[in-house]
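I am sending you the entry underneath: sequence plus fold tokens. Let me know what the token row says about the fold:
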Amino acid sequence: MSPGHVVITSRRHEPDIFALPDAAWRQMWTIAREVHVEIAEKHAPNGWQVVVNSGRVAGQSVEHAHIHVIPRYDEDLTGPRGEVAGRLPDAARQTDTG
């Protein structure tokens, strides 16, 4: 998705992140915070998206609980701010009304 993008997965196979036991849930979010620090030091992004898609209609394409930690850069999005993952420059230009 962008330089430094990391996907954190659980060791326990569970399609839905909300079905994970509390310990696994906490561990994944702790790792997300640790990864954030490492990415920040290496890539110096301008912002972040932390994304969890749960269920096909929510955009989940891999049936295994996971968290995306996505560093974002000023040049990533040209459309309106506050968008979810997947809105890259081409998609933003196609739907940008302003």
In short: Confidence is low (pLDDT under 50) at residues 91-98. The CA atoms of residues 54 and 73 lie 25 Å apart. The longest strand covers residues 66-72. The longest helix spans residues 22-43.
